[in-house]
Structure formats: C-alpha cells, structure tokens
Specification:
Transposase Inhibitor Protein From Tn5, Chain A, domain 1, eleven-stranded mixed β-sheet, 32% helix, disordered N terminus
C-alpha cells in the first residue's frame, strides 16, 4: 500500500494570513499570544476550553491570567478590526464585476449559567418539533461571506459574529438587539467596506430567512444592495397604486394582491429551469410575480418568487419538498421595475444559504463554539467571536489551498470514494500532520512550560513565511 503524500504549505498559508492581521492586534506581545492561541485551536483534538488550549501548548503550569485577558480587555482582540482584515482577504477571491454574496442567520450558543452575559431562555433546537422545549443560550447573528460558485459548491466564511441578545437576557455591557437589527447592521457594515475598497458599483447580495422579512430590515437596506428573503405563504401584499387622478391625497398602496400560496393553484405562468447545486442538476419550477408593496414600506417595491414543491420516489420511499416563497427588492430601470439580478442567479444563491447551517454545525461539533470558560461580561462575547474568527481563517486557507469545488484526494486507504470537497477536519488533520513532520516543532512531542519560547521564535521568524525550497 502506498503512503498518501501530505501537504507541505497549509500551515504556512495560515501563518501568512495571520501575518496580515498584525496591525489589528497592536503590540507584538499581543500578536504573539494570538498566534499561540490559534495554533492551540489547531492542536486541540477534543474540547476547546482555555485549559485545553494551554495544555496543547504545554503551559498548564503557568499563570493563566494573561491568556484570559486576551478576551477580557477590549484592546487585545478587536472583533471588528479582525473582521476588516478577513473582508479584505475575501475581496481577492471576488472580481469587481461579480456579485458579492453574503448570508445572515442567527445561531444559539448553549449555556448553563444564569448569570453569564447574554444568556437567556430560548427554544431548544435539539428537541423534535412535536416536543418543544427551552434551554439557556446566547444568540448571535452570523454574517458570512459566500464564496464564488464552482460546480455548484460554495462555502460560508464568517465576517461578523454580532451579539443579538433579547430584552430578557442577562445584560451588563451589551444592549438588547433584535435579530433583524443585528443582521441589518452587518449588511450595512459590509456595504461600507465595499465602498471603502473602491467597489461602489459592485452589487451586494444578502440571503436571509423569514426572520428578516420585516419592514425595518427592508427600509434600512443601503443602496446597491439586493436582499433575497424567505417570506410567509400568507404574506399580505398590495399592488402598486394607479396613476394619480389629480384629486385628493396620492395613494400609497394599490389593491390587495393574492397571497403567495394562492398562486400554487394556478396552472399557467410557471417556468422551468435547471440549476447546478453541488455538482448535481436540480430541476426547479418557479414563477415571478409583482412588483408588490408591503404595509409600512411603500417606497420599497418587492418581487415575489415562488418555487413549486416537488415529490420523488427513491428506494421505494416517497419524499417531498415543500414550496418556497421569496421576496426580493426591485430596481427601477428606465421607469420600469425589474428584478435586480437574473432569476436563475437568485434561485442558485438561494440554495447556498444552507452553507450557514453547515458553518454552525462545524463550529459547534468540531470547533468547540462556546467551550471557553469566560465569565467576564466582555469575555463571554469575545470568546465566541474569537472561535468564529479562527474558523474563518481556517476555511479561507482551505479554499485557497484545496480549491472550491474540485474533488479532494483520499486521505486514508479505507475511504471508498473521493470527497467532493475538503472539510474542516481535513484541514485540521493536515495542519497537525505538518507540525508532526516539522523538525522545528519537535518540542511539541514532549510539552513543558519552557517550550513555548522556542515555538514562538519559530513562528515569528521571517524564514517561516518564506516559500518552501524545491526538493532535489
């Protein structure tokens, strides 16, 4: 059996990306500690508590207070400053003419303490729908960049992880924010970053679920921003008002329009298209209606996209996909309201919103989101944002090194087929394998409280950032 060759530059790509964040952390001493913690996140194989990270570095016998201050002091880990660097790195992957796609979705971080900052009672997602229960958790809004589509594949890389604590949550240093307000704040921040980077004409596409179908979200969208949001099947819509007759006050709304679910009964007006989603063609039956208006926002015309449900039989079992209803803001072109993007592009990106759920699963299952014992009011939030930031670095490195949608080589002899894309576990295993084969990191095999000085010097040395030498 032949030995599978492992990569030799994944870890160096990670360190190059960390070097780009040098200005975001101020002092070299703080930057060195940040690099150490990122390395510890890679080496930790089970839980990702602070003690587990220090144990991975061989520092469990030293004073821990300086490591906890990374999240307790506002100037040590600045979430927004780090997010700006990640955003600039994503611009290297998206052309000016392309659409910059992002998604917003809420995620709950389970907590047990009733005194932790931001913790409150929320619906427990681990229970089945017929047995609803509650649990203590912190609510964050994940605003992620969606990588360009390749063979129907994309990945969600967190840009901002904003706290969205409800009114009844424990709050000492953070204000109560609704989910749609935090999502709108993330969209406005991304638009500002695009304009600051000289991409004022680039279209920003935001994907969201039905939580963001609120008038305050639609009204707050910045210019050159398109929002594709799921809506309810019984959403009340109005037609555009007719021409002004010249008497009385101008009408803001027209006659009531049919509910979205009423269009399912019509036989005509449906169109067919085939979308490429994760290397598989998907036949979609849809229709476009509008433009319409919603009460409370007469200045924002919306188009209604309806995707008909499907049913198919596989292995003797009948499966069904329920119909979906989307709203998208319209644009005015030569006096006519039109869709801001081609309908095939909108429907293709609508499939990719699931990548945010994949991000939440990997953060919780494989990366220990919320494991850190941080009970300080600032650290309870910053430690969660830290995990999302490190995850964004790793996934961005994986996209650049492994590719976007190309099949990944087999990593073990017992693996039956080639994975269609690399996962977070694949990237972590390759980084650990490189550390195990690197002579500079031989101290990792016998950790002690005095070894980190040698490891830190290797990481900060310029030769570690140099390209690998060609083998003879």
């Amino acid at each position: 059996m032949t030995t599978i060759a492992h990569s030799s530059t994944v870890l160096k790509e990670l360190v190059k990306l960390l070097a780009a964040h040098g200005s975001a952390f101020g002092q070299d001493r703080v930057y060195g500690r940040i690099v150490a913690l990122v390395l510890a996140e890679v080496l930790a194989v089970a839980r990702h508590r602070v003690t587990d990270l220090l144990r991975a570095l061989g520092l469990e016998s030293e004073d821990w207070s300086a490591w906890y201050r990374v999240w307790q002091r506002p100037g040590r880990f600045a979430e927004e400053a780090a997010a700006k660097v990640v955003f600039r790195e994503t611009l290297k992957e998206v052309g000016i003419e392309a659409v910059y796609a992002m998604g917003v979705d809420a995620v709950g971080v389970p907590r047990e303490s009733r005194k932790m900052e931001g913790s409150g009672w929320m619906k427990c997602p681990r229970n089945p729908p017929w047995r609803v229960s509650i649990h203590r958790a912190q609510r964050f809004v994940n605003a992620s960049w969606l990588a360009p589509l390749v063979n129907g594949f994309s990945r969600a890389i967190p840009l901002r992880f904003l706290p969205a604590f409800p009114d009844k949550a424990v709050r000492q240093c953070h204000d109560a924010v609704k989910e749609q307000q935090a999502g709108l704040q993330a969209v406005q921040w991304t638009r500002q970053q695009l304009d600051g980077a000289g991409r004022e004409a680039q279209v920003l596409l935001c994907l969201g679920d039905a939580t963001y179908d609120k008038p305050e979200f639609w009204r707050g969208l910045p210019p050159r921003t398109v929002a594709l949001v799921r809506t309810a099947k019984n959403r009340a819509l109005c037609c555009l008002p007719g021409p002004y007759p010249g008497r009385g006050r101008r009408r803001l709304y027209g006659d009531p329009a049919p509910a979205p679910q009423d269009y399912l009964q019509q036989r005509s007006g449906w169109l067919n298209t085939t979308l490429l989603v994760r290397e598989r063609p998907r036949r979609v039956v849809y229709r476009v209606e509008g433009p319409f208006l919603r009460r409370g926002m007469p200045q924002v015309p919306l188009f209604l996209l309806i995707v008909r449900g499907q049913s198919w039989t596989r292995a003797g079992q009948t499966k069904r996909r329920l119909p979906c209803f989307y709203l998208v803001n319209a644009i005015l072109v030569e006096g006519v309201w039109q869709l801001p993007l081609p309908v095939e592009s909108l429907l293709t990106w609508a499939w990719q919103r699931w990548e945010l759920e994949v991000t939440h699963r990997e953060l919780k299952s494989d990366f220990g989101l919320g494991d850190k014992q941080a009970f300080h009011p600032l650290a309870a939030v910053a430690s969660v944002q830290w995990s999302a930031w490190v995850y964004a670095l790793l996934v961005l490195v994986g996209l650049r090194f492994y590719g976007y949608g190309s099949p990944h080589p087999r990593r073990s002899a017992w693996q039956r087929s080639r994975p269609r894309r690399a996962t977070l576990i694949t990237l972590l295993n390759d980084c650990r394998l490189e550390l195990a084969h690197a002579s500079d990191f031989s101290a990792l095999f016998a950790p002690s409280p005095h070894n980190w000085l040698e490891i830190e010097a290797v990481f900060l040395a310029p030769r570690f950032l140099s390209p690998p030498r060609a083998s003879p």
